[in-house]
Design goal:
This protein is an all-alpha fold and 90 residues long. The chain has 3 helices and no strands.
């Protein structure tokens, strides 16, 4: 296994992680920002107010984008396993 193969594997892994985790983190960040702005405007400082909307938003994203995320992870795993012999030098 040479350096190019290792870099290719790392690039594919990071790409899959960004594609799968990006939408969840983005929605969570956006909902957290909106709730923080709402709390600042109304001066309500309730800790559970930030938690519940984030959980609901993340579950909604998982329900909507779950099949796509699964297909991305399946494609990455299939690609990795088909090239395993090449990476091993066999």
């Amino acid at each position: 296994m040479n350096q190019n193969m290792v870099l290719y594997m790392a690039k594919e892994a990071v790409g899959a992680v960004v594609l799968v985790g990006g939408p969840i983190l983005g929605v969570s960040l956006l909902v957290g920002l909106l709730v923080s702005i709402f709390q600042a405007m109304t001066q309500i400082q309730e800790q559970t107010l930030t938690f519940i909307p984030k959980v609901v938003a993340v579950v909604a994203v998982l329900l909507v984008l779950g099949p796509w995320m699964l297909s991305v992870l399946t494609a990455y795993t299939t690609n990795l396993l088909t090239q395993l012999a090449t990476f091993g030098g066999m």
